[in-house]
Amino acid sequence: MEITYASPSSYDVSSSSSSSAAAAMPHTTRPVKIIPLQHPTTTSSHGDQSSLSDAFHKRIANLKRMTWIEWIEMALPCSRWIRTYKWREYFQVDLMAGITVGVMLVPQAMSYAKLAGLQPIYGLYSGFVPIFVYAIFGSSRQLAIGPVALVSLLVSNVLSGIADSSDELYTELAILLAFMVGVFECIMGLLRLGWLLRFISHAVISGFTTSSAIVIALSQAKYFLGYDIVRSSKIVPLIESIISGADKFSWPPFVMGSIILAILLVMKHLGKSRKYLRVLRAAGPLTAVVLGTTFVKIYQPSSISLVGDIPQGLPSFSVPKCFGYAKSLIPTALLITGVAILESVGIAKALAAKNGYELDSNQELFGLGVANILGSFFSAYPTTGSFSRSAVNHESGAKTGLSGLITGIIMGCALLFLTPLFEYIPQCALAAIVISAVMGLVDYNEAIFLWRVDKKDFLLWTITSITTLFLGIEIGVLVGVGVSLAFVIHESANPHIAILGRLPGTTVYRNVRQYPEAYTYHGIVIVRIDAPIYFANISYIKDRLREYEVVVDRSTRRGPEVERIYFVILEMSPVTYIDSSAVQALKDLHQEYKSRDIQMAISNPNREVLMTLSKSDVVELIGKEWYFVRVHDAVQVCLQHVQSLIETPKTADPLPDDKPSFFQRLLEHNREDISIAEMESGNDRPSDSRNTDPQLEPLLSRKP
To answer: Which residue intervals are annotated with compositional bias (Basic and acidic residues) in the record (predicted)?
Structure first.
């Protein structure tokens, strides 16, 4: 709806200038059509409610509307797929996927346990109970959880500084760490705090995992080289230890490990590149174990170290111990929680989208937490979702969590019947499995992509990867997150601000840098602020506004020519929030403009922003008549004022007795039409009013 006004308010344009000017120019108070802005009342009950209160009441209302079936689904997400399970369609693919992942997990679990500094049996324990628990409480139907390389490295890194890996204390602390990680994950899930991890940039995660993969691969070199190297998460001590022990190098484990690693990489490549050979990707770890064990059983080489005796049977129930060390483990538990969540929830969401069902991130956190807590009562160390095994599970056609239950059964069978065979597995074969798994984490393609797309993210990737390599995992993550937050703060404190111009033939106003053909008007600056306005960025915004007032690009300006700026229009549609500091700054800016005869106008503020401005009396200070729905409305009114400023000194005072004749009035009418066309086009020469289309670039409404 458009309403015709002589000015932005009920009084005439001329009221802002002298009365003599008004008398001299009866034609300058021409009416313009603008859409009236609806000002909310400060007594509105909805406006007084905070967003937190709204979210809380909405959550309560949703809980009240839930049926008993929805309550069961929230407590036990597995009931969602159990109720709709199609046995004929799903069972066969779930069975094959579960067996495939189980065959892959058995050797990987033992390998990752060695990486964590634990006996291989604890890797098997970690791949047993948590899988069953997650299948019940987890919301993802394809996520394969269990031991992973990155978490295993973090466990080894922190516990090696507290106890020797051969001590029983080391094992107890690893189990306690699983309990603590589970508690943190449950708390974050229940309090719905998963959003906190959004502040960790993808570039940080990529740089961190790349460097961690290099450290993991180097830490496994001792099984290839045949001699011990120092346990460290820094690259320099690892390389120094490898070089210093070169005189103890042994050929047999190196040759055997290299051959097995080559076989694993070829099988992985074929499984990824050819669909009909995808089973090779999952069968790779089992093939490595079988080949290595067969070679050892036949030739019995004394120079190749073996896994040794592994206890047979299922894990017994026991409560985690050594809670006296819990305080010192909190930082590592938080770090493992963050890494585990980012690794698990990310792939779980991707798999849910591919398989056409919704996934609740907070429910996923709770499911992972319960799996870790209950797993710690059965001698498991921290577990999370695995990229590689989840991808294999999905590619094998898994439809529901039943595939996870079948994987758990495979692990149980391995614990009950196959552990005597594991005694002859070569250590270099397990090391080859770890190295082949982490090679996919070296994400150099991401670095190339970031260099091409965003140099700032590339810098972040580089800083994180270098600090992780040379200063250790904990420091690398802290530095990466710190720099990432610094970038976020910098972007927030220095928001994008654009000068808007009018696109020819439209009433649309866009950034003049993005659209060079857009033109502006003399005496008017239109500024769009593309961010919330708050204490951290208001100084920057004020500085930019002062700069735009002084620096005028006259080459793209049209309309009546004036020597300075008379109006500043703030387009506030992108502004979602404004705080008290920004309100005070707007008041100061208004007074500063007023002292220089500059009028501020506000365009299209949202309801919350307008409510804040109204409560703080900024609306009354600037004047309700200077608030507009559209930028174009504001420009029409401001341009009319600019026109009046030009014509005032040029018009002589009419004599009281002078009465214009009919021809004089007709000539005056034509002159006004020409003036309007000139204001739209910016031309100095008179235009032919007969050829001017009022609908081409509507600016000021014509007389009927």
So the answer is: 682-691
What torsion, rounded to 10 degrees, do the Cα atoms 103, 105, 111, 116 define?
Answer: -170
Q: How far apart are the first and last CA of the chain?
A: 19
252, 253, 280, 276: which is closest to 265 by C-alpha? 280
Phi, psi (rounded to 5 degrees) for 454:
-145, 105
pLDDT of residue 7: 39
Enumerate the H helices of 127-167 as residue ranges: 129-137, 149-159
> How many CB atoms are located within 10 Å of the residue 605 CB?
23
Query: What is the rounded (10 degree) CA torsion for 311, 315, 321, 322?
Result: 40
**What is the pLDDT averaged over residues 205-218?**
89
- Cα–Cα distance for residue pair 500/515, rounded to 1 Å: 9
Angle between helices 202-219 and 235-244 (to 10 degrees): 20
Q: Are 159 and 173 in contact (CB under 8 A)?
A: yes
Contacts of residue 596, defined as CB under 8 A and 6 or more positions apart, other chains included, come to none
- Beta bridge partners, 426, equal 306
- Strands 627-628, 599-603: pairing is parallel
CA distance 650 to 121: 97
pLDDT tens digits for range 479-526: 988 998 898 889 889 999 999 999 998 999 999 889 988 888 888 899
Residue 434 tokens read as 């770890």
CB 535 within 8 A of CB 579: yes
pLDDT digits (tens, 9 = 90+) for 620-676: 899 889 999 999 999 999 888 888 777 655 444 444 444 555 445 444 544 544 454
The reported pTM is 0.75
